[in-house]
Amino acid sequence: MNPAMTSTATTEPAILDAKELTSDSELEARFAESAHQILAELVRGGAALGWVEPPSRDEVAEHLGLVISAVQVGDAALRAAYLDRRLVGLGYWLRYARPTHRPHADLEKIAVDAAAQGRGVGRALADALIADARASGVEVLTLDARGDNTSALHLYRSLGFTEYGRLADFVAVGEHRYDKLFYMMDFRRQD
Q1: How crowded is residue 93: how many other Cβ atoms within 10 Å of its Cβ?
Q2: 13-189 falls under which CATH superfamily?
Q3: Cα separations (Å) of 164 from 90, 129, 135, 161?
Q4: Each residue of 21-44: b (16+ CB within 10 Å) or e?
Q5: Helix/strand/coil for 47
Q6: Nearby residues of 69 by Cβ (< 8 Å), 6 or more positions away
Q7: Is 46 left (phi over 0), alpha (psi -120 to 50) or beta?
Q8: What is the CB neighbour count within 10 angstroms for residue 6?
Q9: Residue 78 has what pLDDT?
Q10: 122: part of which helix (H) or strand (E)?
Q11: Domain ranges of the chain
């Protein structure tokens, strides 16, 4: 059992990387199902996570399997946030596949259970993923977000991401249209 996970009444989330997650058979067995519950509930509530309808269990499990495979070859990082051995958030980045873009990665997703929001879980996940990107030699970490996702945009700006582009009314959710915003963190300028 992971020592960071032994507390019975933690207030700070334990942030595990993919290796720690997969080395705990109990957590690993529940991870995809717990991640599905978080993602489906957030999407059901209108969260801007890339789905219009809640994703299926199989879709989430397959996608997380691909992320973990990419982690194993150094092309990704996955982080999971736990409070008292309950998954409350997850996030990951993936290295770009194009040969000319290999030094860079895209922060694909940070999702935090609604009940755990406002407790620093998203910031802890983002901090860990940024550190992982630096350690993996990523030069530029990018992300995109829906323009109405003000909490996430505030977090990203506070972490040092800067906006480098915007597509007005690009994201269609039913009859609603939202801007798609592009952010980056350039580690080359921070060293």
Answers
A1: 28
A2: Gcn5-related N-acetyltransferase (GNAT) (3.40.630.30)
A3: 25, 20, 24, 9
A4: bbebeebeeebbebbbbbbbebbe
A5: coil
A6: none
A7: left
A8: 11
A9: 98
A10: helix 121-135
A11: 13-189
Reading the chain (191 residues) residue by residue, the pLDDT tens digits are 454 554 445 578 999 999 999 899 999 999 999 999 999 999 999 888 888 899 999 999 999 999 999 999 999 999 999 998 999 999 999 999 998 999 999 999 999 999 999 999 999 999 999 999 999 999 999 999 999 999 999 999 999 999 999 999 999 988 999 999 999 999 998 75
- List the beta bridge partners of residue 108: none
pLDDT reported for residue 2: 52
Interacting residues of 21 by C-beta distance below 8 A, sequence separation 6+: 27, 28, 31, 78, 80
What's the length of the chain? Answer: 191
CB 21 within 8 A of CB 78: yes
**Which tokens hold the place of 87?**
């998954």
User: Phi/psi class of residue 113: alpha, beta or left (left: φ > 0; alpha: ψ in -120 to 50)?
Assistant: beta
Q: What pairing do the DSSP bridges indicate for beta strands 140-146 and 162-173?
A: unpaired
